[in-house]
Amino acid sequence: MKTIVVTTIFIILSTSAFAKTTLSWWQFWTDPNIKPVIEEMVSEFEKQNPDIDVELTDLTWANGHEKIVIAFASGTGPDIVELGSDWIAEFAVNGHLYDITSDISSTKSEYAGWGMSTYNDKIYAKPWFLGTRVVFANRALLNKAGYDSTFAPVTFTQFKEAVYKIDSLDKNIYGFGSNTAEKHRLYKKFLPFFWSYGATIFDDENRLCLVASDFAIKALQFYKDIHDSCGYVDTQRGIEDAFLDGKIGLIISGDWLLKRIENENRKFNLVSSLIPGEKYPGRSFLGGEFLAINKASDKKEAAVKFIDFITSPDNQVKFCKANRSANPSSKTACQDPYFASNVHLQTFIKQMNLAKHPPVDPDWVFIEEAIEKAVEEALFGDGLPATAMLEARYKIEEIKNK
Amino acid sequence: MIKRKSSAFLFVLPWVVTLFLFWVYPIIYSFIIGFTDRQLLSKDYSWVGIANYTKLLSDQQFLLALKNTMIFVVGTIPLTTVIALVLALLVNKQFKGRAIFRAGFFLPSITSMVVIALIFTNLYQRGGYIAMLAEMVGYTAPQNGFLFDKATALYSIMGMDIWMAVGYYMLIFLSGLKSIPDELYEAAEISGASKIKQFFSITLPLLKPVMLFIIVINSIKSFQVFVEIFVMTKGKFETATIVYYIYEMGLTTKFNFGYASAAAYILFFIIAFFSLFQFYLMRKRNTAW
Amino acid sequence: MVKRIVRYIALSTILLIMIFPLIWMFRISLMSAGESILVKNFVSSSVTFQNYLDLFKQMKMGMYFFNSMLVGLLVTLGNILFCFMTAYSISRYKSLSNKLLFSSVIFILMIPAHILIIPMYLLMVKLGIYDSYFALILPWLVNPIGIFLVKQYIDSLPSSMEEAARIDGAGEFRILFRIVMPLCKPVLAVLAIQIFFTNWNSFLFPFILTQSESIRTLPVALALIQGHQSIDWQHLMAGSSIAVLPVLVIFLFMQRQIVSGITSGGIKQ
Question: What are the φ and ψ backbone dihedral angles of A28, each rounded to 5 degrees?
C-alpha cells in the first residue's frame, strides 16, 4: 500500500514537472526603462501559472520584421509574437497566425483597435498598445510670433500661418520639423494630411486605388509647401532634438516625446494639439502593437491565457505609467486617473478618436513603399506632386493586380 | 611516399572543404537561382529563363544603382591613387617624426567602416563640422546637411571613402618606392636633372606596376560598396549602389532571391573583367614579392 | 630650414585631417547626454565616462564585445592553422593537383564576396546554422588570401631541415608543427593581425547571417542601434570608441607586422 501511494505521488509529481509548458515570446521593448516592467509582468504570470514558463526574446525595429518573416517561413516562429499593426495581414494571409476570433469574443468589447487586426472578418491579433501622432508646438516661439497663450492650430490655414510666422522669426528658427527620407517613418507624417484633406488610399470596396485623387495631390502640395519654405529636415530623432533645443516651431510626433522630456528633465513649454483639418481637426495616423499567436504553435491555450494576462487593464496601466504611453487598448485602462492627470496625454486620447489606420492589406509594405516614394519624389526629387502620386497609383495597381 | 601523399591530402582538406562548400557551391547556386522566380515566402518557384536579367535592364532602380556604383568607382579611384602617391612621396624620405605621420595617415584604413560611417554621419550633418569648414571657405553647405540632399549625398560618401583609403594605398606605394634603386637617382643627379624631371622620368614609370595593381584592387573593392550606404543613407537620396540594391531586393521586405541573384551576377561579370586583369598583374609581379 | 618648416606644417595639417574624425568620436563619447554637440565647444564641453557605463549596464555592450572577440579569435586561430597547413602542402608537394589547388586559391581571391550574400544566406539556412556562431565562424576559417601569403613565405624557406628530419624518421605532422611552423612565425603574426582586423571590423556577413541579439557582433550592433529612437550621439560614439579600441592597441604595439602584411601585397583591406 505504502509503495503504491509513494509511487502515485511520484508519478503525479514527475508528470506535472514534465508537463510544464514553455511559451516563447518575441517582443520589441528593449528600452532599459521598460524591459524590467515587461520582465516583472512575465514573472507575475509564471507565478500565477506555475505550469507555464515564458521565454523572452528581444526584437529590434531595425530588423525585427525580417526576423519574423524568416522565422515563420522556416517554421521556427515563436508561440507569441508582438506585431506592428501594419504587418498583421501579411502574416495572416500566409497562414502563419492563429485565428483568435472565438477566443477573444468574451472580452472583445473591452478593447479598441480590432479593426487593425481583422482580415477577411477573422481576428488574428489582440491590440496591446495603440499609437497615434499629434502636433507639438513650442509655446515660447508661438508667443514670439504674436499668438496668445491659448492658441493651438486647428485648421490647415492656422497651421500653415503659424508655421510661416515662426519660420520668419529668425534665420535659425524653422517653422516645421519635416522628416527626411526615412523608411517606415516618412509616410506616417504625410498620411495625416492626406486623410485630413479627405483623400483615401482605396475606395470603399477596396478596389480602386485613389492615391492620385485631387484631394491627395492637394495634401501633398500642402505638405511640400511647408517643407520647402519652412522645413527643418532631419531624421525623427534629429527633428526632436532641434525642437527641444527651441529651433523648430511645430512638429508631429508621438507619445515617446513626452517620455523623453520627462527623462531628460527638460523645462519645456510644450503645446500639444490635434492634427489640423479643413475646418475642424483632422485625422491622424493610427497604429499599434499587437500580440499574435503562431498558427503552428501547439500551446495555443496557454498562449491565449498569456496574451489575456499581458493586455489586462491593470498591466496596461502599469506599462503606460512606466513608458509614458498615452494609448492603452483597454477601455478600462483609459479611465485610469493617470491619463486625466496630464493635458498632453489627453490630447493623445482625443486624437485617438480622430485617427485612421492604413488599409489592412497583405501587400501593405509594398503600398507603403510606393506612397513613401511619391512623397520623397515631391519633397527631395524633382517630381511634381501630381505626377509623383500618379506614379504611386500605377505602382499600387501593379501590386494589386499581381 | 604514400605516407607523405596522404598527409599532404590531410593538410589541404580544410581548404578543399571550404572551397567547395562556401565558395564554389554558392557561386553556382547563385547563378542557377538567377534564372528562377524564387522568393522566401512562396514555397514553389519556377524557371523563368533570362526574364530576371531582361527585367533588371529596364528596372529604373537597378539602373540608378548601377550608375551610382559607376560614379563611385570612377570618382574615387583617380583621387585616391593620386593622394596616396603624394602622401607616400611626402613620408618616403627619412626625417624626424616620420613614423608618427605614417601611422596617423594609415590609422583610418584599419578602423571599422561602420564606425567611420557613424562618425561621418555626425560630421556631415546640418551645422556639423564639415558644414562649418565649408562655410569658412565660402561654400554654402546644403541646408539639410550633406547626406540629406541628392546633389551632395553620394559625393560626400565618396569623399569619406577616399579619406579612409589613402593611407592604405600610401603604404603600398611606399613599398614600391623602396624598390627603386638609389643609383638611378644618383645618376640623374649627376646629369643635372631637376627633381621634377626625376619624378616623371624615373619614379613614375617605375611605379607603374604598383599603380596598376592599386587601381585594380581598389576598383574591385569600390564596386562592392555597401556598408557606408547602409549606415549613412539607407540608399536614399540617390545613393543606392548595386550591392545595396541586391541586399534590399533579396534580404528585406521582398526576399526576392531569384531577382537579386541575377543582379549579383551582373555585378559579377563587371568585376570579373577587372579580376582577370588583376590576375594578369599578379602573375607578373609574383616574383617581386 | 624654411623648406623643412613648410614640410612639417603641411604634414601636420594632413595628419590633423586624417585623425581628427577619430578624436572627434572620442570627444563626443565623453560629453554628457543631452548636451549639444558643437565643434566650437570642443574644449569647454563636459567630460564624463557615464556613457560608457550606460552602454555596459543597459545596452549589453559587454555581450557584443565578447561576441566580436570570440568570433575574431576563433577565426584567427583557424586561419593560422589551416592556412599554414594548406600553404605548406601547396608549397612543398609540387604535384599537378597541388598546382590546381593553388589556382583555386588565386581564383577565389578574385571573387567579389559581396555578391554571394543571397546564396550564402540560403546555404546557412539549409545547413541549419543560420543565426548561430557557426555561421559567423565556419565559412571564414581558412582564407585564400592567407594561404597565398603564407605560401609565398614558405617558398622562400630552404627545405633542407625538413629533409634532414624526414631522413631521421620524423612524421609529417611533427615536421610541420615542430620545424616549419616556428620558422613561419613572422608571416603567421602578420596573417593573424590581418585576419583579426578584418573579422573584428566585418559587417555585411555577420549582419545578414545572424538575427539574434545574443550572438550579435559589435559593428552590427552599432549599425542597428543607430536607427533606434532613443540613442544619442554621445552613447553611439562611446560604443564606436569601444569598437576601435582593440584595433588601436594592436596597432600601437604591432605596427611593423601590420605594415609588412599590407606591403607584401596579397592582403585586401
Answer: -105, 0
Give ipTM to 2 decimals: 0.91
Q: How many CA atoms lie within 13 A of A259 on its CB side?
A: 17
All structural domains of chain C: 1-48 (no CATH), 55-263 (1.10.3720.10)
Residue A345, burial from CB neighbour count under 10 angstroms (0-12, 13-18, 19+): buried
Place of cell 585623425: C19
Question: CB contact, 8 Å: C141 with chain B?
Answer: yes
Answer whether residue B26 is part of any domain: no
Contact predicate A35/A56, CB 8 Å: no
Residue A247 near chain B (CB below 8 Å): no
Q: What's the Rg (C-alpha) of chain B?
A: 24
Task: Give percent of chain A with pLDDT exceeding 70.
Answer: 95
For residue B105, give the CATH number of its domain: 1.10.3720.10
Closest residue by Cα to residue C139 from B17, B261, B10: B17
> Per-residue pLDDT tens for B237-266?
999 999 999 999 998 887 899 999 999 999
pLDDT at position C229, please? 61
| CA A260 – CA A243 distance, rounded (Å) | 12
Of the candidates C99, C228, C86, the one whose C-alpha atom is nearest the C-alpha of residue C146 is: C86
Q: How far is C116 from chain B (nearest CA, A)?
A: 7
Q: Which of A272, A19, A303, A261 is nearest to A153 (CA)?
A: A272
Are C109 and C148 in contact by the 8 Å Cβ rule? The answer is yes
B212 in a structural domain: yes
Give me the domain span that covers residue B150. Answer: 34-288
| Domain annotation for chain A: domains and CATH numbers | 2-132+286-356 (3.40.190.10), 134-274+363-400 (3.40.190.10)
All three cell numbers of A270, joined, read 510644450
Chain C window 154-213: which residues touch B at a Cβ cutoff of 8 Å? 171-173, 176, 197, 200-201, 203-204, 208
| Cα(C144)–Cα(C195) distance, integer angstroms | 11
The confidence band for A244, taking pLDDT boundaries of 50, 70 and 90, is very high
> What is the C-alpha separation between A281 and A284, in angstroms, rounded?
9
Which residue from A92, A29, A86 is spatially nearest to A310, judged by alpha carbons? Answer: A29
Q: Which residue has the higher pLDDT, A324 or B73?
A: B73
Chain C neighbors of B228, CB-CB under 8 A: none
Beta bridge partners of A286: A132
pLDDT value for A2: 60
CB atoms within 10 A of CB A390: 17
Whether residue A15 is predicted with pLDDT greater than 60 in this model: the reply is no
Instruction: For residue B28, tell me if it sits in a domain.
Output: no
DSSP-derived pairing of the beta strands A118-119 and A248-253: unpaired
Q: What is the pLDDT of residues A124-169, one digit of tens each?
A: 999 999 999 999 999 999 999 999 988 999 999 999 999 999 999 9
Confidence band of C268 (pLDDT split at 50, 70, 90): very low
A206: left (phi over 0), alpha (psi -120 to 50) or beta: left
For residue B170, which of B259, B260, B104 has the smallest C-alpha distance?
A: B104
Q: In angstroms, rounded to a whole number, what is the distance separating the alpha carbons of residues A127 and A113?
A: 6
C-alpha cell at C142: 581558412
Residue C266 scores a pLDDT above 80: no
- A318 by Cβ neighbours in 10 Å (0-12 / 13-18 / 19+) ranks as middle
Q: Look at residue B69 in the predicted model and tell me its pLDDT.
A: 96
- What is d(CA A217, CA A238) in angstroms, rounded to the nearest whole number? 28
Total of domains in chain B: 1
Q: Is residue B9 part of a domain?
A: no
What is the pTM assigned to this prediction? Answer: 0.90
| A62 contact C CB<8A | yes
Spatial separation of the C-alpha atoms in residues C143 and C261, rounded to whole Å: 15
Per the CB < 8 Å rule, is A70 touching B40?
yes
